[in-house]
Amino acid sequence: MRNTGTRGYSGYRGRRPGSKRWLVLLLALLLLAALASLAAQHYMVYDKDGSYHFELPWSKTRGNAQRPLLRGARPELEIVIERPDAAPVLPLHAQELNADALDGSMSQALKALPEDVNAVAVRLRDSDGALLYPSALNEAQEAKAVKGDQTASDAIRELTGSGYYTIARLSALHDSLFSVAHKAEAGVQQKKYAGQLWYAPDSTFYLAPEKELTRQYLAHIAAEVSALGFDELLFDEFGYPSTGRLNNIQTADREMTQEEALALLADNLREPLLGTDVKLSLLLDEKTVLDGSNAKTGQKLADLAVRFDRIYVPTTEDKIPELLAALADYTAELVPVLNAAPAEGAYLVTP
């Protein structure tokens, strides 16, 4: 009897699935495509405009045929980027508003501005020492120096959001309110009557910049006003009294000169503005700038012009060249304070 082996398995020899044949064929086609691509790149020529064509060996012509730029690589195209010119820095064309603009007429005041005006100034501290906005400073409230209300706050918010460059005008040392509240610690005192404030011909009082409390108070005001959104702080009456019985002023307890005291005050005003874009500016009279100093007020141009960004000077248009020459050695910009806009250059027109 013939042995037939195990039932069901005697005829098996092993079978190759048909899918493997297709896989081999596919791999062969991919290899051929890759080789063709490499070969084609040898005959690919890029034109000047970045397009390309194939130059096959049998299609080449002899003689004066144009030579291709590159073979097998894209040409380096020159890329020219046109950038708009930087916006020019325009001269300051400023208009000071009337004091009643803080009383609810800010919208009308802004609408009435001349077309050439790009900056607006408004007084926030007067020569009595009154703050014409609702200050939150405890020392100002204790001295009863806060005179502004919510209406003023709304007007300031409208001004600083108007798109104009904004300037806050602030009286510095002519201050009766804080002087009376702090006679010994901040005020200019009399020589003959100890503890009594020296008074000007109009019976007003002054702060003494050599006293620390004075400098601290004014620096706090600078910080608060800059936080309201103003672009620049312009201090005026930045000096010792210049009229009246000056020989009656107590000077024996001073530990620094008038010039040193004003320079220190300027430095203290700058401190809260560090790290911001807020400019610090000063108003000086014409004679002080042209002479270079004022012995009565203690103002010395060489000390102050290096500490302030702008020097404002009440003047006339014909004196501007002289004032520019006087400030030529300093980085501080001259801003003439005029009754009407000049033909050219920066200015501040006051009401």
Assembly level: single chain
Count of alpha/pi helices: 11
Mean pLDDT equals: 85
Which bin fits the share of residues in helices?
25-40%
Shape: elongated
**How many strands, what sense, and barrel or not for the largest sheet?**
8 strands, parallel, barrel
Order of helices and strands: HEEEEHEHHEHHHEHEHEEHEHEE
Residues in β-strands, percent: 15-25%
Biggest sheet strand line-up: 4-5-6-7-8-11-12-13
- What is the distance, rounded to the nearest whole angstrom, between the alpha carbons of the first and last residues? 136 Å
How would you classify the helix and strand content by structural class? alpha/beta
Number of strands: 13
Radius of gyration over C-alpha positions, nearest whole angstrom: 40 Å
Poorly predicted spans: 1-16, 58-88
Short structural description:
The chain has helices at 18-42, 106-111, 138-142, 150-160, 177-181, 183-186, 212-227, 258-270, 286-291, 301-304, 320-326; strands at residues 44-46, 52-54, 70-71, 93-96, 119-125, 165-171, 232-236, 279-283, 293-294, 299-300, 310-314, 333-338, 347-349. The chain has 351 residues and is α/β, with parallel strands linked by helices.
